[in-house]
Amino acid sequence: MLGAFLQVLDTSIVNVALPYMQGSFAASVDEVTWVVTSFLVANGVMIPMTGWIAARMGRKRYFILSVMLFMVSSALCGVAQTIDQMVVFRLIQGAAGAAMMPLAQAILFETFPPAEHTLAMAVFGLGIMVGPIAGPTLGGWITMNWNWRWTFYINVPAGALAAMMVYAFVHDPPYLHKQRGSGRVDYLGIIYLALGLGLLQIVLDRGQRADWFAAPWVRIFTGASALSLVALVFHELRFPDPILDLRMVKIFGFTLAITLIAVQSLVLFSINLLNPLFTQELLGYDAWQAGLVVAPRGLGVVIALVTIGQLSRRGFDLRPLIGLGFILAASQIWIMSHWNLQVSERAVLWPILLFGLGLGVVFPTVTAAGLGQIKPERMGFASSLFNMMVNTGAAIGISSVSNMLTGREQVHQAYLVQHFSVFDAWRVSGDGALMPGSPGFGYLHQMVTGQKQGLGMVYNLIQAQAWLLAYNDVYRLLAIIALLCAPWCLMLKRVGGGAKTDAVMH
C-alpha cells in the first residue's frame, strides 16, 4: 500500500507548488505545466507494461527497483536547477511509479483467497484514498512553510521504508520463477504502446491550451495515436507473448468491470476537478476554504470502504450495492447541477460527502469482481490492463470536462448578451464608458453607479451567470453518465465473503 500511496500522492501534491517552481526556474506557464504532463505521460505508458515486465524480471525485483528509482528521481526533482532538468526527472519518476499500483493489486489478489478479495480491496482503498485527499493540503503546507523542493524530498524516507518492507515480506510465487526471462521480447508492441498512449496523453493534457484541432500538432498527434493503437490491437492479438494481453477482453465479466471502473474514474476525476473550481471561481472561496469544502468526499469514501469490507466478511451479495452506489453518486451530481451563486456552504458539503459515499462503494467491489475472474498466472497482466483503463478514464474525463466547460460558457454568454434587452438600448464609447443612446440608458444608469463601473458590473454579472450555467450543464451530463452505469452491476459475477469464485482463464 505504501508504494501505491506514494505514486498517487505525487500526482496531486506538486500541483499547488507549480507557481513557486515557475518563479524558481523563471519559466513560462506553458513550460512549467510540463512538470505535470511529463509525469502523466510516462505513467500512462508504463502502467500497461507492468505485468509483462514483472513476468520477465520477477515481481519482487521489479517492485523494489521501481521504489528505488522513484526515490532517486524524487531526490533529483528536489535538486533540479532548470525547468528542463525538472521535466526529465519527472518523466523518470512517472515511469518508476507506474508499477506500484498494479503490482500492489496483483500481490493482494494472490495473497488473499477469492472470498476475501473485496475486503482486501476495501482496506487497500483506505490507504490509497489518503493520497488525493492529503496531496493538495500537504503540498500547500510544505510549500508555504518549508520549500516546494520538500514536496519531493519527503518521498525518500517513505520510499526507503517501502523498499525494505517489500524486500522482507513480498515473495514471488513459483509460476513467476518459471516465467522469468521466457518468451520473445515484444519490441513492436512496446513501440505501438508508447506512441499510442503517450501521444494520446499529451493531446488530452495540453490540447485545450492549443485550441484542440485548430493546432496542426494536435491533429498530427491524434492521428498518430489512433493509428498506433489500432496497430497495437492487431499486433498484440497475434503475438505469442504480448506486452498487453488483450485476449482477456474475451471474458465478459472482466471487460464489463474494466469498463465500469473506467467510467467511474472519468466521473470521479471530473468532479474532483469541477468542485474546487466552482467554489473558488464562482463562490469566492480561497484555496484553503475550497480544500475544506471538498474534504468530506474523503470521509464518504472511508465510510463506504469500511462498510463494504464488513459486508464482504459476512458473505453479502455486493452487486446491488454497486448499482446503488452509482445511483447515489448520480443523484448528488444532479443536486450539484442546481447550485447557484448564493448556495450555502452546508448545501455544498452534503452532496460532496454523499457523492464520495456512492462511488466509494464501486471501487472495491468492481475491482474484486473483475480481477477475481483471472487466474493468478495472468494477474499481473490483468491488473496492468485494469489500471490502464482507470488512468485513461481519468485523463479523458478531465480533458473533456475542461473543454466542455469552456465551450458551454461561451454559448451561454453569447445567448445572454443577445437576449439582454438593455444591451440593445446603449452603446459603448472607445474607452468603455456607457453612452446615452436611447431611453434604455437611463434605466441602466439607475441600476449601477457610474458609467464605467456600470459597464463592468453588467459584464461581470453576465459572465458569472454564463459560467454558472456551464457548470450546471456539465454536472447534469456527468449525472446521466453515472446513472447509466447502475443497471450493469447485476451482470457482474457475484463477489463477497460467501461467494465461491472460480478463476477462469482465457
Whole-number tally of structural domains: 4
The named CATH superfamily of the largest domain: MFS general substrate transporter like domains
Estimate the global geometry from the Cα principal axes: globular
Major beta-sheet overview: 2 strands, antiparallel
Rg, Cα atoms, Å: 25 Å
Question: What's the count of strands?
Answer: 2
Helix/strand class:
mainly alpha
Number of helices: 22
CATH fold type of the largest domain: Growth Hormone, Chain: A
What percent strand?
under 5%
Which regions have little confidence, pLDDT < 50, spanning 5+ residues? 422-453, 497-506
Short description:
With 506 residues, this protein is mainly alpha-helical. 73% of the residues lie in helices and 1% in strands.
SSE layout and pairings?
Layout: H1 2-9, H2 18-25, H3 29-32, H4 34-46, H5 50-57, H6 59-79, H7 83-97, H8 100-111, H9 117-145, H10 150-153, H11 155-169, H12 174-179, H13 187-206, H14 216-238, H15 252-281, H16 287-294, H17 296-313, H18 319-336, H19 345-371, H20 379-419, E1 427-428, E2 434-435, H21 440-447, H22 451-485
Antiparallel strand pairs: 1-2
Helix pairs in contact: 1-8, 1-9, 4-7, 4-13, 5-6, 5-20, 6-7, 6-11, 8-20, 9-17, 9-19, 13-14, 15-16, 15-19, 15-20, 15-22, 17-19, 18-19, 18-22, 20-22
